[in-house]
Automatic annotation (TrEMBL), chains A, B:
Subcellular locations according to the entry: Cytoplasm
EC number: 3.1.3.5
Note accompanying the cofactor annotation: Binds 1 divalent metal cation per subunit.
Residues engaged in binding a divalent metal cation: 17-18, 48, 105
Pfam family, one: SurE
Family the entry assigns: Belongs to the SurE nucleotidase family.
Cofactors, names only: a divalent metal cation
Protein name: 5'-nucleotidase SurE
Protein keywords: Cytoplasm, Hydrolase, Metal-binding, Nucleotide-binding
GO MF entries: 5'-nucleotidase activity; metal ion binding; nucleotide binding
Domain of life: Bacteria
Function: Nucleotidase that shows phosphatase activity on nucleoside 5'-monophosphates.
The species this protein was found in: Sodaliphilus pleomorphus
Length: 261, 261
């Protein structure tokens, strides 16, 4: 391929939170390479649950793990958001990617749980930088999950986002069901509000001291409606939730004006 | 005070991200105690930048550091969100606090930076649990900042929130200017969209290997308007931004429907 042709291929930045050793990111990389040149910036270690955490007290290091035509893989000792930030600022030689992809997460990111999701942390960083960004999560939580059922979904969503773009400031949280029967198709959904219950399991160590494992089950409460991600995911739909990084509650502003008067 | 009177005092859960050794949280505790019984659940270590990160691979431990009438202080080896979650699930003996307070952060939490803020991570957890929650941040970034200028603001906001409550699902991000002249009063604001530029400083270690310190400056881009937190904070207003934990972009849903057709 001549240089001019090469320059026309989209540049796709790929990250995740499980780390580079997991199947999910390899399936995503394989599909992304069908569409463009891929640079991976992924955590060296398992970083699930890190949300949009960033690292400011420890310096980051990046190791170039794979360097072949159309694919570079950087491993970074940071959070998912760190990996994305470091790539955008330092590892892409000044190029701006056409797309930021995250996942495939081993486990769904539904409801308010997405607040704590490192998979989402990657695309929120992409979104802050004004780049089209999509996160993919699969309902199979197994560390060695077979991701092949996700491939047609990835191909479809990536093709459409590359062709048509996304509204400004919007990124996508895509969840692919597992074990819910044949996929029914796509539903555009909202985030199901809810909360965890029984969040911790208390145990006692051999020295008699208590410690707590985070666990918990998700209890949807005030809007488990038919337009939510959780409702549709559980019925076999691939859910696509448009998200943004602005957490302002604009509707509440007049009420807060009154509160402060 | 008799037991019945005691039961009527509000229960206030206090957290932060800088850790219990910082001035900010002590100023907040002192003011909170004027209003109710206080339980602190704060990180043992500095946890700035941790956003809504949670800890799932390491168990948490909680040490009861202070136990006196009207005040308990738990120190937890986790993130700011962990501390809040553990308190709500385990450390409050089944009681639900009337208020979750976070801060005072040594440094402002303005614009999209709040996405990465551990101070905000605390109140987002409170908000997920349906509890009135307020974060306070001060524009002085010094580790030994004198927080006395914040006290009247804390008193005013806490009193109003306890008296009148907040709209359902809404928490408050309060930023108090430093070094901008006399405080002008309160402005209800929106989060200033923007992004960081020059995010990392590359250095070389004594062994010849590169490493990166996160740094960067915040560059407001597409909405640095007159209703934003950044604009008003820089002009000496205490900014009060109503936030929520639902990151769905509801307005974008029809556009994403079309994208997938």
């Amino acid at each position: 391929m001549c240089d001019i042709m090469k320059e026309k291929r989209p540049l796709i930045l790929v990250g995740n939170d499980d780390g580079y050793s997991f199947n999910g990111i390899h399936t995503l990389i394989d599909v992304a390479r069908e569409f463009g040149d891929v640079v991976v910036s992924a955590p060296t270690e398992f970083q699930s649950g890190k949300g949009s955490a960033i690292t400011i007290t420890v310096p980051l290091r990046a190791t170039l793990h794979v360097d072949e035509p159309g694919l570079k893989v950087w491993l970074v000792n940071g959070t998912p958001a760190d990996c994305c930030k470091l790539a955008l600022d330092q590892l892409l030689d000044g190029r701006v990617p056409d797309l930021v992809l995250s996942g495939i997460n081993h486990g769904a990111n539904l409801g308010v749980a997405s607040l704590n999701s490192g998979t989402m942390g990657v695309i929120f960083e992409g979104c802050v930088h004004g780049i089209e960004s999509v996160a993919f999560s699969y309902g199979n939580y197994s560390y060695d999950a077979d991701m092949s059922a996700c491939v047609p979904v990835l191909r479809n969503v990536i093709a459409r986002v590359l062709d048509h773009g996304l509204p400004r400031g919007v990124c996508l949280n895509v969840n692919i069901p597992y074990d819910k029967g044949p996929l029914k198709g796509y539903k555009v959904t909202s985030t199901c509000m809810g909360r965890w219950v029984h969040e911790f399991e208390r145990r006692t160590d051999p020295h008699g001291h208590d410690y707590y494992w985070m666990t918990g089950e998700y209890a949807p409460h005030y809007t488990a409606g038919e337009d939510t991600d959780l409702y549709n995911f559980n019925r076999g739909w691939v859910t696509v939730t448009p998200c943004h990084v602005d957490q302002t509650d604009h509707e509440a502003m007049p009420a807060i004006e009154r509160l402060l008067q």
